[in-house]
Amino acid sequence: MMNTNKENQEEYIIIAQADQQETSEKEEATNAPTIEVTESETGESKEFNSFFNEVLKKIPTKYATIIVNSFDKSKAQAEKILANSKEQYEGIFEDFLVGVDPEVRKKCFSTIHIATLTAAIIGCSPIPFSDAVLLVPVQLTMMGRLHKLFGQTWTQNIKSAVTKEIVLVGFGRSAVGNLMKMVPVVGSVTGAAVNGVVASGLTASLGWVTVKMLNDGEDLFDDLTTFRGQFQMLSNAVKNSRKKA
Predict the structure, then answer these.
(1) Measured between alpha carbons, how far is 186 from 188 in angstroms, rounded to an integer?
(2) Which of 27, 73, 193, 203 could be joined to 119 by an S-S link, Cβ 3.0–4.6 Å?
(3) What is the Cα–Cα distance from 134 to 140, expressed in whole angstroms?
(4) Model pLDDT for residues 165-191, shown as the tens digit of each residue
(5) Would you list the DSSP string of 174-190?
């Protein structure tokens, strides 16, 4: 019983931190560090940099600075994680998206892939006990862009409601990796790998649940119970597939 109460308290703390983080976004944005974007960049590379820099502006400057300083190393590790998990997750998402037109999937894939890579990079960054909060801006930015792709409005009410669901479903999944990050050298590397895998799996699951509901004409704010159930189901399927791998 005590463990349950402790977990609930920690969940509320994370939700409060996410709310506080959103309140300070405008103040932080002008000082936020960003990754360099060159004029020669085109296509997905340009889109990724745009997405990543948008997320950095929504993260407290002290954390964004660490993420930028460790960007090259974290990105290389994150890309390996996504490459290794691609085949593992494809079947799960394919089954979940039955009934969703292939063209719809195709137009949403880039946004979800970029968000998943961004989440993995943050998961691989050397910031213990912060991933749950730092992933929220990634996932909300992704969901906002997916709503625009479907011509739907992304409101503050939806953002606030979905933030709580993201934390409640995803909270604790990265605890092991965060603890391991506290161990010098080897622990930090291994913990980052664990968090990168969890962060990417949760973000991809959230992205495809959003696509499925938007495609089916469901409103995330009006159908939070459906959203929670589908997110929980898909993220658990992804988690279980990792155990079997």
Answers:
(1) 5
(2) 203
(3) 11
(4) 776 665 544 443 443 343 343 334 434
(5) THHHHHHHTSTTHHHHH
